[in-house]
Amino acid sequence: MVEKEKTALILVDVINSFFEPGQPNYYADVENVLEPMRALLKAARESGTIVVHAVEKHRPEFHDFEWRKLPIHHLEDAHDAAFFEDFRPEGANETTIFKRRFSAFFATDLALFLHEQKVTRVVIAGVKTNVCIRATAQDAFASGFEPVVPREATNSNRPHLAEASLEDIDRYMGRVVPLEEALGMLA
Predict the structure, then answer these.
(1) In terms of C-beta density within 10 A (0-12 exposed, 13-18 middle, 19 or more buried), how is residue 164 classed?
(2) Quick one: pLDDT at residue 3?
């Protein structure tokens, strides 16, 4: 007997830094992913699917290796690192993972948590496709999960890199699907 896939939704970096106009990582096209992500979150909440809010946070008083490539950003309790609008965790089926690198899996307990919940597939949405989404999908695959990326629920300020990343995800790691198919996985 084949067991039904157990799916979790991972929302990556849905924080002010990327989605609030005037913030350092904001770009106009990012707004195109808001409604698709809201639809995914609504479907997951209605079905009781596990939702993981993976957000980047850094310790303000300590050196971070990432500062070698990027300016200091997303410090704990800073406005740019706060959840954007209605994307705050709520309810018993939602949790938060704080990440210090691009992948929601790297140096976090996300894989352990999902394995303990018997999750086999993760729907990954958020920003940016060619950075945090790709890294999360790659590490999901390496951790034994099927990564699924709804095309409409991710993008980047570098569209050509986003498209190349989606092609790689679909070819080597998981699946890139239309929003409707991902919604069905969360029902």
Answers:
(1) middle
(2) 56
